[in-house]
Amino acid sequence: MVKLIAEQIPVSAKHTPLLVLGVFEDEVEGIMNELDGISTTIVEVVERIVKDKEHTGSFGSSCIVHCFTGPMQRIMLLGLGEKKNLDKEKVRVLAGKAAAKAMEINVSEYSIKPFAQLTKDFTEAVCEGTCLSLYKFDQYQSQKIGESSHGASPVKVSLLVDGDREKWQRVLDTTKIISDAVNFGRDLANLPPNDCSPEYLARVALDLSSKHQRISARVIERYEMESLGLNGIVAVGMGSNRPPKLVIVEYRGNEDSSTNVPYLFVGKAVTFDTGGISIKPSERMEEMKFDKTGGCDVLAIISGLANLEVKANVIGIIPCVENMPSSSAYRPGDIVRMYNGKTVEVINTDAEGRLILADSIAYGIEKYNPKSIIDLATLTGACIVALGSNIAGALTNSPELFDKLRRISEKTNEKFWELPLYPEFNEQIKSKFADIKNIGGRAGGTITAAIFLSNFVNKTPWIHLDIAGTAWTQDGTWDKSYNPKGATGFGIRSLIRLVLDESGSK
After folding, report:
1. What's the Cα-to-Cα distance from 241 to each of 89, 188, 347, rounded to whole Å?
2. Closest listed residue to residue 196, CA positions, set 47, 296, 329
3. pLDDT at residue 117, rounded to an integer
4. What are the residues whose beta carbons fall under 8 Å from the beta carbon of 231, sequence distance 6 or more?
5. Which residues of the chain have pLDDT under 50?
């Protein structure tokens, strides 16, 4: 557990086990100005460190100074790099590095003096970097005596501010809730497949509804799905003895417009994906527990919005299945009639995510008539080939909607790159025996997957986010202090901020 507080107090008067001070590479001597009012002994030690170039201010470097006099026990000199290059993402990374160093030296309470002019962006970045970097998924590791379950002892971080303390505390509180939502999504996505089944995710949704007055949850079971015509979801789940679930989570934060649903979020939740009859290679198949990440992210988004008490109405739909090979599994060659009436020829049972998403999108449009739809899915390996492991693919029928998301992502540093959705790609998914087929070949695999989904969107503004490369740390993932190994929670911060902006909340 991490607690962040804004304190209006001079550095020289702050009693703390550790004080974090930033040092610019091109203005190393500037650190001396931050020590005004602190004991002469400490100033002389820091001055010697600077003069002897023991600390140069290079980005991410750190040096611990032990203080034998003065209100603080230790000072961490944290390298900020060149002043002109300092931005929100670098502050986020630096805050994570400071938190990691504090844990390394067994300090669970420390204070940070702003590295530059105190702004909303800086405050958010410090909070995000701290909370996200301290995340641990350790509930399956044998505990050592004296350690708490799920991480180290509680951490308290003070941000030393000038002026309106309450203003900065509100920024910290909002950002902390969003960061907690990311870590909640990480927790779910990191769960092993033997414990996280479709039924488990359904229970998580029902638990959210019991905790939040404005959240309601409904679970549609297999036989009801069959009667409704949600045959894409049913087909994918037939090979497992863990039946599929369609989880619907509604957050109603705007009582004045109860019928207005600005956003429908749809998240792919394949709790484990063997590929079905078209079975995957065994190498790294254990990572297919992360094929549920889109659905976990949607649950986290709804939870975060509820904790923020956002004045908006948002629907989350999570199709939950386990894709397994068995005598009852769906097969290549099957033809499935989807919820909207279109028929799909199954060419490859490992292209299952688009089937469950398509049914969910069509059902959500008919049931809730949303203004916009955004789906999140670890959908195609082709997206990793095209964009690597740090950028999500985005395909949309609404440039206006994507522009909103793009502007927000520039602040969250969750990178999305738009790929074309040209209608000519429909030729690749034409079927000889059905309306369409579920795979369009190797060429443009990410685009043809989105083209498949576009057959179920109609004219509703929609963005498809392929997070196959960004949902968890894998080969090629950039090393960032705030992204520990495993699930990243990618997209949660951006999409919560999108709803916050839409609702006029701050």
Report:
1. 45, 21, 23
2. 296
3. 84
4. 225, 336, 337, 338, 339, 359
5. 145-146, 148-151
CA distances from 182 to 226, 298, 322, 490 (A): 34, 10, 24, 8
Per residue in 102-153, pLDDT (tens digit) is 999 999 999 999 988 899 999 999 999 999 999 999 999 986 544 544 445 6
218: tokens are 């409904």
Residue 138's pLDDT is what? 92
427: helix, coil or strand?
helix
Q: Which two tokens stand for residue 148?
A: 């708490």
Q: What single letter denotes the amino acid at residue 402?
A: F
| 7 Cβ contact list (under 8 Å, min separation 6) | 14, 111, 158, 159, 160, 161, 165
Residue with tokens 């990311």: 182
Query: What does DSSP say about strands 155-160 and 74-81: parallel, antiparallel, or unpaired?
Result: unpaired
Look at the alpha carbons of 442, 444, 446, 450 in this order and tell me if their dihedral is positive or negative. negative
In this prediction, residue 505 carries a pLDDT of 67
* Cβ-based neighbours of 374, under 8 Å, separated by 6 or more: 263, 264, 265, 266, 405, 462, 463, 465, 495
Cα–Cα distance for residue pair 353/129, rounded to 1 Å: 32
At 19 the three-state DSSP class reads strand
Q: How far is the C-alpha of 61 from the C-alpha of 292, rounded, in Å?
A: 37
Quick one: tokens of 379? 């959908």
Token representation of residue 426: 């429909």
Give the residues across from 430 on adjacent strands. Answer: 436
Position 420 scores a pLDDT of 97
Strands 343-345 and 436-437: parallel
Domain boundaries along the sequence of the chain: 2-163, 180-503
Say what the alpha-carbon torsion angle 467, 470, 475, 478 is, to the nearest 10 degrees.
150
Residue 435 to residue 445: CA distance in whole angstroms: 19
Q: What fold does the segment set 180-503 form as a domain?
A: Aminopeptidase (3.40.630)
2-163 has CATH 3.30.930.10 classification: no
Positions annotated as catalytic residues are 280, 354
Distance, in Å, from the CA atom of 472 to the CA atom of 130, rounded to the nearest integer, reads 19
Angstrom distance (rounded) from CA 332 to CA 495: 36
